[in-house]
Known about the structure:
Structural class: alpha/beta
Shape: globular
Number of strands: 12
Number of helices: 9
Order of helices and strands: EHEHEHEHHEHEEHEEEHEEH
Strand content: 15-25%
Distance between the termini: 17 Å
CATH architecture of the largest domain: 3-Layer(aba) Sandwich
Largest sheet: 4 strands, parallel
Helix content: 25-40%
Strand order of the largest sheet: 2-1-3-4
Low-confidence stretches: none
Radius of gyration: 19 Å
Amino acid sequence: MADIRIAGVMRAGAYSPNHIGNDAAIFNAVADRLRKRGCEVRIYSEEQFQSLPIEEEIVLNMCREQESIRKLIELEEQGCLVINSGQGIENCTRERMTRILISHDVPYPESLIVNTNEDVRPALEEAGFTSCWIKRGDFHAMHKEDVSYARHPQETQEMLHEYYYRGIKRAVINRHLVGDLVKFYGVSGEPFFHWFYPFDEGHSKYGYEAVNGHSKGIPFDIEALKATCQRASDIMNVKIYGGDCIVDADGTVRIIDFNDWPSFAPCREEGAVAIAKCVLKSIREWKKR
């Protein structure tokens, strides 16, 4: 592996709300493991990645900025190996994610995709939505206000107007699902898969876990969830992933969020091992082309 040179691109702090240290820790842990396997890993900030020429043909990244994503896609088109794929990172923005998962029959909440300057109350009432979640549709969440919980259609309408005044033109409205909130982390093609109840363990980014509250420990098929996540990983083109799902009273599991390279904070060491293995496997396959 001594001839393998990797550009490692850290995530800009603005896209690590309340998790800057955790995001840096998992990234550095993976880089260290790759170095121990003989790889040369040069670390860039997103700003450096955008402004400097990249000599490495392998790019391992946690990018979220639009300019970074454009450059990742350009490098992929030139034949470079990029993990996670720039296209995959774009697929994790809310509107794209919603359209992709629903169109491929991945279990997901009933949703409306709307313009933030429209009156959505008739559509909400027709769909039978009462409490729901509003999420900016155009990009990844950067602030707590990019995800909102609304208790009824009028409150949804008022919050949607706030999105409009903030310059957010599109939003996804998900029906609120009652049940146990489960957070998961996975790596494509690897046996590693970690899940837990975030509210019970005090794990939170914005505090919204309190809406569903303490878990009831509803039994569900963990292997089926892992298989669903692997399928979503393939569809979304995201090798290093995490997300959230809801387990309802009869054990049905539906994904409510799917993210490119989250923090892996509760399982950092195991996650770093799996990610490094995935990267090395991807490099071997890429070199055979």
